[in-house]
Amino acid sequence: MARPKTDFPAIRACIFDMDGLLINTEDIITQSTNHLLKKYGRPAFTPSIRAQLMGIPDSTSSDTFHNWAKLPDSIPREQFALELKEQMRLNFPTCSPLRGAENLLKNLSHARSISSGEGIKLALASSTKSHSYDLKMSRPETRQLLDPFPSDCRILGDDPRLCEGRGKPAPDMYLIALQAINSTVGAASGGKVILPEECMVFEDSVVGVEAGRRAGMRVVWVPHPDVAVEYRGRQKDVLAGRTGMVEIGDEWQLGEIDDGWAEGIVDLEHFDYGKYGIDVVDGM
């Protein structure tokens, strides 16, 4: 067992996943998938299979999903994928912010790092592709939710800087987000770049937690209730990035059990600013 690290620097930047963390799109994906499963006479998602697929792009085209779903032979994967894409096109514009998201982003947009007195830098690192992102931003309340993120610090799954096959749980997306943040660091900080250990990653998915750990960043895991139940008793593995859900090698990037780099919370309202050296300033 690792000795927990206690001498962390204060957080200077926060990088957020989006789906299932800030907005309720994971529930919409489940709703859309269940609609088609019912159409083809198959049972609805179970919490267990849902937890295995959450956070993985195009997961309903995977062997894991189709081995479980056992769709009729007359329904090829390509057809199911096209029908699901259309169902989500109809449903994504109805998405809304999740509990605590608006308040947390508002607070962080007025917060400062106690180490430097600088404002906390914010970035988005989401596996969603641009066309889906636009659908999810259809409503004013979801667009306004993301206002604190500078446009050049919103990294999506089809970002040209992200190499093929290097989505989460690889660290690349979070490292690209940090690079974007550092391009905005100005003279106020003496040009001092933000280091990975000065970044806080917020994630709901297991693969996302692993990506944050591989990037050398601190992580707050806010799991969907189904995911929390599925990984009950394995939370420490999740926080270390050691579930082995997707094998990509480079195990030296992973954390150790109880190493102090990550924690799990029930929802975003339970985030402890002071614990991470973040001073919330009343901006109103």
Automatic annotation (TrEMBL):
InterPro entries: HAD-like_sf, HAD-SF_hydro_IA, HAD_2, HAD_sf, PGP-like_dom2. Pfam families: HAD_2 (PF13419). GO terms for molecular function: phosphatase activity. PANTHER family: 2-DEOXYGLUCOSE-6-PHOSPHATE PHOSPHATASE 2, SUPERFAMILY HYDROLASE, PUTATIVE-RELATED. This is HAD-like protein.
